[in-house]
Amino acid sequence: MARYTEAVCRQCRREGAKLFLKGDKCYSDKCPFTRRSFIPGQHGHGRPKKASEYGLQLREKQKARRTYGVLEKQFRLYFAKADRQKGVTGTNLLVMLERRLDNIIYRLGMAESRNQARQLAQHGHFTVNGKKVNIPSYQVKAGDVVAVRETSRSSEIFKELLEARSQRTLPLWVEINPTELSGTVARYPSREEIDAPVNEQLIVELYSR
Fold it and tell me: What's the confidence (pLDDT) of residue 161?
């Protein structure tokens, strides 16, 4: 599957917002976005052009895609499913993105970033309700238990990640058991609990054209 392979911090600069694509580095003074927040490219220092209505909607969609590491076709499928569900389409979309296995791993502090969480999931380091799942886009349900596989628990990477996790705030909708290297999705998040820097209404307007 095609993935963005260049410097991910360029994506934050292009969207004009921190997307937290490099984990803990994004919270430090070493974050490239803090030092160079202008748009990448030779014309990035110039006066920014006034974006059209379509341009604003497109940027919000790109921002959401890049935050969660989702490809265009996959994102369209998420939106179509969110649109068919009851409730607010934009909120439904964000909740589905939050329910991705790689995002749950990241929220539990078992990975520094969603990109690292995606790699760990693909390599088969996690189980959901005791069964091995290596699909990063797997939709975790309320009550599901996500855990590091028994054979992977001795890995130094998870010990280091859990030590670093104590410095991060855990979302209220997930619970973690550090001794068992596992976490539970207690419930689905409300819109107020999703900290993605996205205006989902603009995405709805874009796909409603």
Answer: 77
Q: Is residue 54 in a domain?
A: yes
Q: Supply the pLDDT for residue 1.
A: 42
pLDDT score at 50: 76
Strand order in the sheet with 174-177: 131-132, 126-128, 145-148, 182-185, 174-177
Cα–Cα distance measured from residue 208 to residue 144, given in angstroms and rounded to the nearest whole number? 33
In a domain, 157, yes or no: yes
Q: Do 136 and 66 belong together in one domain?
A: no
Instruction: Identify the CATH number of the domain in which residue 35 sits.
Output: 1.10.1050.10
- The domain of 177 spans 100-187
Query: Considering the entire predicted model, what is its pTM?
Result: 0.79
Nearest to 152 by CA among 144, 164, 143, 161: 161
Ranges of the chain with pLDDT below 70: 1-49, 164-168
**Which region, left, alpha or beta, applies to residue 53 given φ > 0 means left and ψ of -120 to 50 means alpha?**
alpha
Domain count, the chain: 2
Tell me the H-state helices in the chain: 9-15, 32-35, 53-68, 72-84, 89-98, 101-107, 114-122, 156-165, 200-207
Say if residue 24 is exposed, middle or buried (CB neighbours under 10 Å; 0-12, 13-18, 19+): middle
Any idea of the CA torsion for 50, 41, 34, 58, to the nearest 10 degrees?
40
pLDDT of res. 39: 63
